[in-house]
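A quick aside before the break. I want you to see a complete sequence-to-structure record at least once, exactly as it would be stored in a machine-readable document. Don't worry about memorizing anything.
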Amino acid sequence: MDMHKLLKLVSGPALLFWGAAASFSIWASEATSADLSVATSDYYRGGVCYNFNLQHPEELHNEISIRVRDYFEEANTIVVAAQQATIVQLRFDWALETRDWCGVAIGYMKEAVWDDEAVNRCLCFHEYMREY
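That is the input. The structure line, written in tokens, reads:
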């Protein structure tokens, strides 16, 4: 079977599954007031990140910036270590995504720009990385 046909065949049901899981997690959880903690259940529920445009209060930007830099360093350590030893493939994949998105967020921060999507992807993918 052609690789493109296989990817289409597999990605359709997978997207439906993730969409259903995200919808169910939104429906199943009750609405809560704004939680000022970082990496809250506001975007990471039931193992699914569904709101990469979640806006963090400006008073938390300094704390989140430190966390983003720490996550970048942690993910980079895993990616570099994977070049010398065998690790779980999914851990490597999520570490790579975490490193890349945290790097994007750090790049924006250096220009005094706050990018909610990059920050949220960094925080979320770090959670996935920790699961493996």
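Two observations worth writing down. The chain has a mean pLDDT of 75. The CA atoms of residues 7 and 43 lie 28 Å apart. We'll return to this after the break.
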